[in-house]
Description:
The protein has 164 residues and is mainly α. It has helices spanning 5-15, 22-34, 39-55, 103-119, 152-163, and strands at residues 62-64, 71-73. The protein folds into two domains: 5-122, no CATH class; 123-164, no CATH class. It is 43% helix and 4% strand.
Amino acid sequence: MAISKKILDLVHLALSDRVLTYTERQTIVKAAMEEGTPEQEINTVLDNMLTQRLKSFTKEELRNCPHCGAQIPLISDTCLFCGGSLQSTDTQPNIPTPEITGAEAEIIQRENIDTAAERRNLKQCPDCGAPYPLVSNICTQCGHVLHEQTDSELNVKNLIANIQ
């Protein structure tokens, strides 16, 4: 079965920020299924389009997931393979956003806004400037000790303080 232009536009809108969130995927799958597209088919299309989108990244825009080692975009908030939590950068693509309206498009646009807001709240290594997760003790890029792991209660308090 052919995927409708509306669904393809929703996919392009979701991938315009180069991140496909769980909410975006579920919204697209639900809309496609309401049009009669089988769930497996739309998920295959989403995976293929995401793979193509990932090929547009340069080597400098990719890094290895600290959890599973897979190559992932720097701007990803979670690993696309293992789901591990990551930090992102402010690199923005210059790809035109599709003109689409409706409830599904509004959900995806809100997700894009939320993703952009999360990108502004990065912690960076004081030595090399690379983004890092709050739970990390050592910068994955340069090896700088971010905070010593001397007492797990102290680290938990620091983590909670950084979250607030």
